[in-house]
Structures are given as C-alpha cells and as structure tokens.
Task: structure prediction
Amino acid sequence: MTTEFRLPHWEVSVDGIWLTRHFRFENFLQAHQLVMEVAMISERLQHHPEIRYGWGYVELRITSHDAGELTQKDINWIEQVEQLPALQPQAQYYPLPYPTESKIN
Result:
C-alpha cells in the first residue's frame, strides 16, 4: 500500500509499515478515556494498535501484522478512531467512580 495518505496528524514510520499519532490531554482521566474508547473500537474491528499512555498523553501505533505492511484495514481503523467521542471538541469527561482522597497512610 502506498504511504501517501490523507490522514492529518498521523505519521508514517521510516520503514513505511506503521502509522502513529500522539494525543495530548489535560489530565490522566482524559487520556484513559481515549484508551478505553480505542479498545472498544479495536475489539469491534478485530484490529488492535500498540498503545502507550500516561498523564496527559496517548500514543497510538497501528499496522497490519499479518500483511507486514499498512493496509486498508489500518485506514478503516483510523477513520473510526478519529470519530471517537474523546477526540471531539465538545467531549465530556466524567469522574471515575473512585474516591478522590486516598485513605493510605
């Protein structure tokens, strides 16, 4: 597959077999919300990325391991990810159902 894509913000690796995008968020909860939404899409499509995340950031990398190159399956996955609620300007973030104060001494 050609590496000429119309996918703003996604970078093609030097070897041409990975697409990567970095996301920034205001906090860990927002980053985690994106990761959870990506997991749901990935399971539905049966196409799974490599994910790195921490406080305020997420990195997604995708390739078609079985083909050893980028395929239309990767593009379809990215198109679904780009529509996720966590990436929309009006995204709402809800608190986790955990206490905000630690009881650990």
User: Anything to note?
Assistant: The longest helix spans residues 28-45. The first strand starts at residue 11 and ends at 12.
